[in-house]
Amino acid sequence: MDTPATAGPSPSDAPVEEFDEVTISIEAAPGQVYDLVSDISNMSRWSPETFKTQWLGGATGPKVGAKFRGWNKDGWVRWPTVAEIVTADPGREFAFDVKASGARWTYTFRATDTGCDVTERREQPHKPLGAKLFGLLLNPKARPGTLRTGMQQTLERIKAAAEA
To answer: Fewest beta carbons less than 10 Å away: which of 23, 62, 86, 112?
Structure first.
């Protein structure tokens, strides 16, 4: 029996300061959609916030412990992040932690009769002080809505690519 590749405790085990999730149905096999999502070089195609990604430390693919840098934007504000993959379970789940923000981003893939349901989830059990201060630049009252809209756009773009 294959054991899913995971690392670290789930943020679900801690009180969550911020949480959101969006689900979409896609007419494609879970493994096919997983491959699109877990190839971080595609992230700038999907996300309206991420405009560039790069594997770090010799990593070349989605494996637990692999790290990548992402460059993000929100209006005039630009910032880099470093993320570490914590779950790489093909066709089932892909997740990464962004230490600077305290967020875990998780994509789950559930087979359906016509393809799969894909859920993008953001959990932030704690927000480091630096992230709280940086968040003041991003219009803190509008930020949750911006993130949710971005998650919906991300899934819609993945759907369009998977069904093309």
So the answer is: 112
Q: List, for residues 45-94, the tens digit of each pLDDT value.
A: 999 999 999 999 999 999 999 999 999 988 888 889 999 999 999 999 99
Tokens representing residue 73 in the block: 């934007």
Helix (H) / strand (E) element for 5: namely strand 5-6
Distance CA 36, CA 15 (A): 31
Structure tokens at 2: 């294959």
Structural domain count, the chain: 1
| DSSP strands (E only) in 12-138 | 18-26, 50-56, 67-74, 77-89, 93-98, 103-112, 115-124
Q: How far apart are the first and last CA of the chain?
A: 33
Q: What is the CATH number of the domain that holds 40?
A: 3.30.530.20
Burial class of residue 119, CB neighbours in 10 A (0-12, 13-18, 19+): middle
